[in-house]
Amino acid sequence: MATVALSSIAKSFGSTRVLGGVDLDIADGEFLTLVGPSGCGKSTLIRIIAGLEHQDAGGVAIGGAPVDHLRPHERRVAMVFQSYALYPHMTVRANIGLPLTMSRLRLWQRLPLLRLLSAQRRRVMRYIDADVAAVAGQLQLDHLLDRKPAQLSGGQRQRVALGRAMVRSPEVFLMDEPLSNLDAKLRVHMRTELAELHKRLGATFIYVTHDQVEAMTMSDRVAMMDAGSILQLGAPSELYERPASLKVAQFIGSPAINLLPATVGSSGRIELFGRPLALSAPLAQGQAVTLGVRCEALSLLHGDSAGPGRAWFSARLRRKENLGSEYILHFDLAGRDAAGVTMRASPAVAAGVNEAAEVTLGFDEAACHVFDADGARVEPRSPGGATGSVVPLRAWP
Amino acid sequence: MAELALHPAAAPVTPARSALRRLVGLALVHAILLAGAVFMLAPFVWMLVTSIKPPAEIFSAEISLWPKQFYGLQNYRVALDKAPLLRFALNGVILCGGILVVQLLVAIPCAYALAKLRFPGRNVLFVLVLLGLCIPVQVPAMPLYIALAQLGLLNTYFSMMAPFFLSVFAIFLFRQFFRSFPDDIIHAARLDGVSEFEIVWRIVTPSAWPAIAAFSVFSAVAHWNDLYWPLIVISDAKLAPPPLGMMFFADAETGSNYGALTAAAAILTAPLVIAFLIARRRFIDGVTMTGVK
Lengths: 397, 293
What we know:
The complex is a heterodimer of chains A (397) and B (293). Chain A has a six-stranded mixed β-sheet, sandwiched between helices. A six-stranded antiparallel β-sheet of chain A has the order 13-12-11-14-20-21. Chain A is elongated and about 90 Å long. With 397 residues, chain A is of the alpha+beta class. Chain A has helices spanning 42-50, 92-104, 107-110, 119-138, 154-166, 184-201, 212-218, 236-241, 246-251, 347-351, and strands at residues 4-13, 16-26, 31-35, 57-62, 65-66, 77-80, 172-176, 204-209, 221-226, 229-234, 258-264, 269-272, 275-280, 288-293, 298-301, 310-322, 327-332, 341-345, 358-364, 369-371, 377-378. Chain A is 25% helix and 31% strand. In chain A, helix 2 (92-104) packs across helix 4 (119-138) and helix 2 runs parallel beside helix 5 (154-166). Chain A folds into two domains: 4-241, 3-Layer(aba) Sandwich (Rossmann fold); 255-378, CATH 2.40.50.140. With 293 residues, chain B is an all-alpha fold. Chain B has two domains: 15-74; 83-289, MetI-like (MetI-like fold), CATH 1.10.3720. Chain B has 15 helices and no strands. The model of chain B is unreliable at 1-5 (pLDDT under 50).
């Protein structure tokens, strides 16, 4: 088993800078997810770890030893690709067995005709077949071993690709968006399977995805990347509850976080739509800030429930989305220069809101995130003097 | 009603009418294609018809598609007796096979390197390949002949094959084909410990069968039918490939026996036609480049 250490990895394609000095330490047996929008450099980073691309600067160490001079197969890593990358003309058995064939047979034993002369080859092939069968059994592929990839469904191909990675018993698994080509239902199922596989194998997993749900559900730690650098690294709950920047807040969470424009008033008090809140920020007066409010932090206010520590504003219902167990309500901010907001509501609450009716929405000021004009997180001071309170995660307002 | 008012000229489309229109369209398309097919097949059919006609009928003024007197057996017997046709055909097979094998052995790794490996000068090399496509075979004929003569290699199979071992057309065709081969599979192979050499032959080439089949047809047809180069380097009838053999045959005793000549031509064309019919599907796949999926 192995740790992976990246130190100031930089990479450019022509004049385009893809990675700008990435540092990352991944613990032995950890499940780390690289998440970010497409083009943020996450796939390039994982390819550099695999040795498929060469970094312009910086170093990669696996298990404490530098591997920069090693070729991909010498790095004891295995990779699962988004497109599965199975060998189209080989059976499942040959696909899974190929890494073992390459490492356990000599060149001449792999050549056509000449290989028939080797008695040793037959013995080695028997061992390989046994190993392939063992892996296939774990992945429920036993009955598919003689098929070609074209005859398999997407989920089965995915499992073959996993099997080909597992059969080498690598110390590090690299996964490049392995679930992106699967349908929604299978993706949810494979998420669980991958998490269980990680637990069972105890190997280090580095997982690349643009899907924040995959990042949140499977990982020990998540590294959110954008424009070739890591914006925030931490446990999934940390990224959700204390996003370090506006970009992280916007990317993590579904539906996306609500952003409300606000300004810093006199004595640092934050004003939302002209009304001062109890929150204050250590910023100059008149500066624009953005308040981030999760959709589950919003609630409907009925006259008397507004009070100290609760911000409010009026809105008009545009659309209800029924998700079965809950509703997503989309509101327009009446007459204000801001995008609409979304709110999570129970069916009972949703039933009480009529289309086009004006309502008052409120949120606990302690539950909102404040970002300055550059998008960096600002720790607000609440009136009690406590700073950086942890956001209460409530299912229902 | 509103629609009818908007398009008063449009007659209502009934199922019968649309079926009729489709039928007329199909008939027209097929008529054009058929005319093209007749035009292209006519010389071939004429050869076959002539090969079973007696000499008297060949030069008669009337055009008939079937002889009054079936003379096929005699013509084919003369052709097979008087000329070593099977020897010519065997020479053709050796020539085409030898050229094709070396062409593939050279062109496939070259094409892979041009399509998938990154190295300085790659684009320059590819431009050179494209330039190579523009040079007709007649241009280097003289230096090649002199070189072969100096080496004492004239009148050998090798002298017939050597100028064609390097096919820029094959490099170009396979390079285009390999470019569509998924990079991820090559990456996976590298991670699995497959060497570049084995990636070419074990992973990439098996998926290129349609392109290989297409190229094989092009190559075999070109060299089976080539008269120009064998005429220059071969003077021994025992080494002659089909067209040169036909020439020797026509020169010698048969002279103006067109029945026997066309019979010989039919025999020498047959292997190619049969080979194409076998590889037809792959050939079409390869030319339309729908290979890797």
